[in-house]
Write a structure and sequence with these properties.
ion transport, binds zinc ion, CDF/SLC30A, 295 residues, transmembrane helix, 3 strands, Alpha-Beta Plaits, elongated, disordered N terminus, three-stranded mixed β-sheet, Cation transporter, zinc ion transmembrane transporter activity, mainly alpha, 8 helices
């Protein structure tokens, strides 16, 4: 199969994976609420976070293709960071609620409808297992597909655990297994969604991108030919892949020098991946400003 064929294949696997996952989420939430199974609710939340992250990744690609306009001079890239942040906060709230449900119903004496829980977990196992199997076929060459495959295989394992747990509870009457499984799934989901929350907040709050070291950027600017000072330095994210920089450079050049500006732009682009740079070039005498008015 050709290289593009592989990509097409995993694209459709992703698309079908998210459709089935969306249906699964709805069924799991409904039946989890009806039966009172915290494990099903936790699995539903986890599958929801999977589906939303697929949709957000797709949305980010679409938004990054939209050109900037006169009204939106940066385009719509920031939208995906805002969506990711709101999504992460809602997810954290839901996880907290489910953990609370699991703990407060830990010792409930009334049995769950174990047959219904098992049937739903079996459906989840089918969907996650089918998605994993589809991804596995394309996972030899593509690192992303391989990561997605391993994730879906883990999810299938979780569904199997919920299925087995409900079976054991039905036989032994140990209701707490449901709560324990819910807490494990909550912890797993928390582990994957907390970094998304931190990173998206960094973008929403105009923080320096995680992969850029500001002192190194400052040092690189000061090392440019003829630069004697650098101040009012700002670096922030335009999107998950693009960064912007503004800075004032004090130079001892005789006159305006486009070649110098080109060297600075290219070095920031190649060393730090900063694609959008705006520089204010200042002569050293007389001194113009005293750093950033925001600092
Ligand atoms: Zn998952
Ligand atoms: Zn520009
Ligand atoms: Zn200045
Ligand atoms: Zn400033």
């Amino acid at each position: 199969m050709s290289c593009s064929g592989h990509h097409h294949h995993s694209d459709s696997a992703f698309a079908w994976g998210s459709v089935w996952n969306g249906l699964l989420v709805a069924v799991e939430f409904a039946i989890g609420a009806w039966t009172g199974s915290a494990a099903l609710l936790a699995d539903a939340t986890h599958n929801l976070s999977d589906t939303l992250s697929l949709l957000l990744a797709w949305g980010a690609r679409v938004a990054a293709r939209q050109p900037a306009t006169a009204e939106r001079t940066y385009g719509h890239r920031r939208l995906t960071a805002i969506c990711a942040f709101v999504n992460a906060v809602v997810l954290l709230g839901t996880l907290g609620f489910i953990a609370w449900e699991a703990v407060t119903h830990w010792n409930d004496q009334n049995p769950l409808k174990y047959g219904v829980v098992m049937a739903t977990a079996a459906a989840a196992l089918l969907v996650n297992g089918w998605t994993a199997w589809n991804l596995q076929k394309g996972s030899d060459h593509d690192l992303n597909t391989r990561a997605a495959y391993l994730h879906m295989a883990t999810d299938a394992g979780v569904s199997l655990a919920v299925l087995a747990g409900a079976g054991i509870s039905a036989v032994t009457g140990w209701r707490w297994i449901d709560g324990a499984l819910a807490l494990v799934i909550v912890a797993m989901t928390l582990r994957s969604s907390w970094p998304v929350c931190v990173e998206s907040w960094r973008m929403v709050a105009d923080g320096v991108p995680a992969n850029i070291d500001l002192p190194q950027v400052r040092a690189a600017l000061l090392a440019m030919p003829g630069v004697t000072g650098a101040h009012d330095l700002h670096v922030w994210s335009l999107s998950t892949t693009e960064s912007a920089l503004t800075a004032h450079l004090v130079v001892n050049h005789e006159r305006l020098d486009n070649r110098f500006l080109g060297v600075v732009h290219e070095s920031l682009r190649s060393r730090f991946g900063i694609a959008h740079t705006t520089l204010q070039v200042e002569a050293s005498e007389p001194p113009l400003c005293h750093g950033c008015p925001l600092a």
